Amino acid sequence: MDERFRERLVRALEGTPEDWGWCRPTWTRELLCQELARRGQVRVSVATMGRTLASLGARLKAAKPVVECPWRDWKRRRRLYELKCLEVFGPAHEPVLHVDEVDIHLNPKVGRDWCLPGQRRVVVTPGNNQKRYLAGALNTRTGQLTWVEGKSKASALFIQLLWRLASQYRRARRIHLVLDNASVHSSKKTLKALAQLGGRFVLHFLPPYCPQGNRIERVWLDLHANVTRNHRCRTMARLMARVHAYLSARNVQRSASPSLRRGDLRRSA
Fold first, then answer.
1. How far is the C-alpha of 64 from the C-alpha of 217, rounded, in Å?
2. Which residues form the Tc1-like transposase DDE domain (predicted)?
3. pLDDT band for position 121 (50/70/90)?
4. What CATH number does residue 119 fall under?
5. What's the number of CA atoms in the CB half-sphere (13 Å) around residue 82?
6. Same domain, residue pair 95 and 158
7. What is the pTM of this model?
8. What's the pLDDT score for residue 265?
């Protein structure tokens, strides 16, 4: 497999089969062999194609579903740039926090784990799912996370977070919140609570469907990777104890994957 063959293979993988005229949405090794032959390259076996893919570091991955932002590209980029400038150049005495909510399910999220040959990890699910919700705020300058827990993802959960932040940052005249366009962030109850707080909070809304602009999304991904994925907790109370222990350790150790043992869970409880 010469360098030209590998370059043509990389170019093919940058698109889907439909981009190159095939009536199939995903690549197979057999179809890649046909595509490379169609481009004038030598026809190779499926096994050779597999070895070439491995040498390129290519591997099967799950597709990532996304919803496109309805804004024009220049408008979306300008808004994200404005929020970035707020984080970097905003007044030092006015904290900037990224806010979002996350669902915690008693039925575990299933994910990959290292296993020996012939083995496969088994995760027993409780069957009747239960849910809890967290609303969190990540300080973009200090990395400190503040969160509250609730049984529903309604305006009351977000309002509870507002009061917690008002108490935590009591010396700040203004607190800037970067958040998405969820209805709980602009409901009548929320607007009333913001008025009661004396206008200390300034809400900066992200463009629609731009989760990559909210840094707390990374925290929730780490939470699922460290706690909820493949978990074996039989009760919601036990699962939430691990969730709170992880977030507390993350604040203390300043690490996305803090070192925790069962004794730490008992002390945190």
1. 15
2. 96-238
3. confident
4. 3.30.420.10
5. 12
6. yes
7. 0.83
8. 63
* Pairing assessment for the beta strands 96-105 and 175-179 based on DSSP bridges: parallel
Judge whether 177 lies within some domain.
Answer: yes
Domain that holds residue 46: 3-55
* Residue 264, pLDDT above cutoff 70: no
Q: How many domains does the chain have?
A: 2
Q: Is residue 63 part of a domain?
A: no
Encode the chain in three state secondary structure: CCHHHHHHHHHHHCCCHHHHCCCCCCCCHHHHHHHHHHCCCCCCCHHHHHHHHHHCCCCCCCCCCCCCCCCCHHHHHHHHHHHHHHHHHCCCCCCEEEEEEEEEECCCECCCCCCCCCCCCCCCCCCCCCEEEEEEEEECCCCCEEEEEECCCCHHHHHHHHHHHHHHCCCCCCEEEEECCCHHHCCHHHHHHHHHCCCCEEEEECCCCCHHHCCHHHHHHHHHHHHHECCCCCCHHHHHHHHHHHHHHHHHHCCCCCCCCHHHHHHHC
- Is there a contact between 242 and 250 (Cβ–Cβ < 8 Å)? no
What are the strands of the beta sheet with 131-139, ordered from one edge? 145-150, 131-139, 96-105, 175-179, 201-205
User: 41 and 129 in one domain?
Assistant: no
Alpha carbon distance 263, 73 (integer Å)? 50
pLDDT at 110: 87
> Are the C-beta atoms of 96 and 126 separated by less than 8 Å?
no
Nearest to 79 by CA among 168, 245, 204: 204
Which of 141, 11, 15 shows the shortest CA–CA distance to 86? 141
| Burial 70-98, CB ≥16 within 10 A → b, else e | eeeeeebeebeeebeebeeeeeeeebbbb
